[in-house]
Model the fold of this input.
Amino acid sequence: MKIEITILGLLMERNLYGYEIKKKIVERLQDYVDIKFGSIYYAIKKAVENEWVKRVGTEKDGGNPERYIYEILPAGRKHYKKMLKQYFDHNLIHFDIDIVLMFFNTLQPEQKEQFIEERMELVKDHLSRIKVKIEEEGAMEDDHSQIHVFNYLEHHLKAELSWLRSLKKGTMSSDD
Done:
């Protein structure tokens, strides 16, 4: 569902060819979405078959193969809005780290401490990169700004950092 939402969302902005879709995903969301290049073309093919998207032309650049330009259709717009609503209404909020936290207590105290320290550094690094992106997005006058995504991520990362600090404090004091 993520790939469909991403592709249809980009096509809501303007007509694109497959490589442009991949390029925009990398530019905007490379650190936040793991979408493989081949899955983009599979999803586009599926969208064409479902009549959510159609080819509206081709583009040829030098000796490169011809590229198909895609446009979202009214049925695609409807499907896109339906998927967004489903995503907001039904997806549970979870993060990849949740599975690790389920087994956190199986670690030795020094392993817990190392895990917390490494995670804190990772979160701080991501937080600093997000702040840069927020500044860049704030300077843009583009209607397609990703400021909402970056603000959400910033708040989440700050909350995780605060939680990690409390976990560290609790872990350290329970070991003493």
About this structure: The chain has two domains: 2-90, 98-175. The chain has a mean pLDDT of 84. Strands lie at 16-17, 53-59, 67-72. Residues 2-90 form a domain with the Arc Repressor Mutant, subunit A fold (CATH 1.10.10.10).
